[in-house]
Write a structure and sequence with these properties.
By secondary structure, this protein is α/β, with parallel strands linked by helices. It is 45% helix and 15% strand. Strands 2-1-3 form a 3-stranded parallel sheet, with helices on both faces. It starts with 15 loop residues before the first helix and ends with a helix.
């Protein structure tokens, strides 16, 4: 297979450069629901994302953004204290 990164039983074949980008990306999950954070983390890890960080509320999420400078933030819109819309405005 030309430039195949992997064939993980799901018959997904990614070009090597896409796989490298996925492995290098930093993702931050901000959600007050621990179960949803776990589900999203598992999905990202199964896709090949190696650097996944979590925050349990908007305030912790804001601090995590400052600390980790993630490439992507997956943000719950409805949270106590600092909701998603307010966090986006601040960032």
């Amino acid at each position: 297979m030309n430039g195949a990164l992997r064939d993980s039983g799901m018959n997904s074949v990614l070009p090597r450069n896409v796989g490298k980008l996925i492995h290098a990306i930093e993702v931050l999950i901000i959600d007050d629901n621990q179960y949803m954070r776990k589900v999203v983390r598992n999905l990202l890890v199964n896709l090949g994302v190696k650097n996944v960080h979590e925050a349990g509320d908007g305030i912790a999420g804001l601090e995590a953004i400052r600390t980790f400078a993630p490439d992507i933030v997956l943000l719950d819109w409805e949270m106590p204290l600092l909701n998603g819309a307010e966090l986006v405005r601040i960032v």
